[in-house]
Amino acid sequence: MRVDQFEPLTDTDSMRACYRIMEAARPVDHPFLQPQSFEGFSHWWQLAGRPQQAWLASSDSGEPVGFCQLVLPDRDNVAVAFAALVVSPIRRRAGIGTALLAHCGGQARRAGRNLLASTDLTRAKVRDGSPGGRFSATVGARTGLAELISIQELSQELLGRLGELRSAATRSAAGYELVSWRGPTPAEHLEQTTRVGAAMSDAPRDAGREPDTWDADRVMATQQAAAAAGMHLYSVAARRSGTSEFAAITQLSLDPRSPETASQGITVVRPRDRGHRLGLLVKIVMLDLVIQHEPALRHIMTGNAESNVHMTRINAELGYEVRGVYRSWELDLPAGVV
Ligand SMILES: CC(C)(COP(=O)(O)OP(=O)(O)OC[C@H]1O[C@@H](n2cnc3c(N)ncnc32)[C@H](O)[C@@H]1OP(=O)(O)O)[C@@H](O)C(=O)NCCC(=O)NCCS
Predict the structure, then answer these.
(1) Are residues 60 and 194 in the same domain?
(2) How far does the centroid of ligand 1 lie from the alpha carbon of residue 121, in Å?
(3) Spatial distance between the Cα atoms of 125 and 70, rounded to a whole number of angstroms
(4) DSSP letter string, 32-83
(5) DSSP state letters, 257-304
(6) Is 304 a domain residue?
(7) Residue 64 and residue 176 share a domain
(8) CA-CA to 317 of 20 to 30 Å: which in 5, 51, 284, 296?
C-alpha cells in the first residue's frame, strides 16, 4: 500500500476516488443519512476552512482503498490535529485503517501537534455501533461528547402544528423583529452575523477543546466558498426592534443536486436574549423561508451535543427525531498507537 498527498482543490481524480469510497461506505457507516453529490462532498471537504493535508491510500495495483483529511488549525486548537479517516468497505479488516492512522499521527506530530482528534467541522465523528466505533476502541482512543444526529421529516401535519407553535413563540418574542436573506451574508449584516455567531462559544464542546475563532473574513470566505460550490444558503436573524444588533441567528444550507435534504447550520441566541423563544422562532421562520424556495425539500438534518438540552428540546418540539449517536474520539501523540 502507498499513501500519497494530493491537492483537494485541483486534483479532481483523487477527490473523486475519496468520494466513491465515502459513498460506498455510507450504507454501513451512515445508514440514515442521504447520499451526497460529488459537489456536496467537495464542499464538505473545504468546510474545514483551515490549513489541511489530504492523503489517499492505494493498493499496490493502484486501486484507491482509503483516505484521510488532516486539519491543522493555526488560530485555535493549535496543539490538535483533526482527522477524518475512511477505508473502502470492501478493504476493511486488513490493517489499512491502522496504517493510515499511523501515517496521519506521524504527519500531525511533524506539524507539532500532541493530540489527534476527530473533527467537529466535517462531522467526521464515529457512530455508536459502527465499524469506526469498534476501531476507535481497539486503538485505545478516548471518546468525547455524544452528538445526536436528528432528522425533521416535513409533513402537512407537522407544518400545521408549527403554525400554533409559531404564534406562541411570536408572543414570547415581542419586541424583536426578524430579518432573513438567501446566499452569502450581505455586507450590511456581516458584522452582526459574526458577533452573534461568536456566542456559539458557550455551546458544549469536548474537554480541552477551544471554541473556533470566527471573524468577518472567515464568515465571508466560508460562505463564498459554499456559494461557489453551488450550495443554497439561508439565514434568519432576530434583533431587538429599532436596533441593528442581532440577538439570534439560524443558518441552513441545501445542495441543489440533492434537493430533498437540507443541513442545519448554527442556531444561536446571545446569552442576554435567551428565554424569549427566539431559538424556536428563528427555526420556524427558517422553515417557512426554505420551503418557499425549495419545493423538493423533504427533510432537514441537524447534529447537536446530547448535553445541549435547550437545543435538543427545541428540536423535539419541531418534530426532529434522533436517528443516531455520534462521538468524537482523540489519541495522545506520541502516546497511543502512532
Ligand atoms: C474505522 C476504519 C477506518 C477502520 O479501517 P480498517 O482498515 O478496517 O481497520 P483495521 O483493519 O486496521 O482494523 C484494526 C482493528 O480494529 C478493530 N476493528 C476494525 N473494524 C472493526 C469492526 N467492524 N468490528 C470489530 N472490530 C473492528 C479490529 O480489532 C481490527 O483488528 P482485526 O481486524 O485484526 O481484528 C473503517 O471501518 C472506516 O473507514 N470506518 C468509517 C469511518 C470512520 O469511522 N473512521 C474513524 C474515525 S474518523
Answers:
(1) no
(2) 22
(3) 14
(4) TSPP--HHHHHHHHHTT-S-EEEEEEE-TTS-EEEEEEEE--SSS-TTEEEE
(5) TSTTEEEEEEEEE-GGGTTSSHHHHHHHHHHHHHHHH-TT--EEEEEE
(6) no
(7) no
(8) 296
Query: 225 and 105 in one domain?
Result: no
Which residue puts its alpha carbon closest to atom 23 of ligand 1?
Answer: 131
CATH number at residue 143: 3.40.630.30
Of all protein residues, the one whose alpha carbon is nearest to atom 22 of ligand 1 is: 131
Q: Is residue 24 part of a domain?
A: yes
pLDDT digits (tens, 9 = 90+) for 119-161: 754 556 899 999 999 999 999 999 888 889 999 999 999 999 9
Please work out whether the CB of residue 126 comes within 6 Å of at least one atom of ligand 1: yes
Residue nearest to atom 42 of ligand 1 (CA): 86
21 and 140, same structural domain? yes
- CB of 87 shorter than 6 A to ligand 1: yes
pLDDT tier at 186, thresholds 50, 70, 90: very high
Mean pLDDT, residues 23-41 taken together = 92
The model's pLDDT over 42-71, given as tens digits with 9 standing for 90+, comes to 988 877 667 899 999 999 999 999 999 999
pTM confidence score: 0.87
288 C-beta closer than 6 A to ligand 1 = no
- Supply the range of the domain harboring residue 43: 2-147+327-332
Using the mean position of ligand 1's atoms as its centre, give its distance from the Cα of residue 132 in Å: 6
92 Cβ closer than 6 Å to some ligand 1 atom: yes
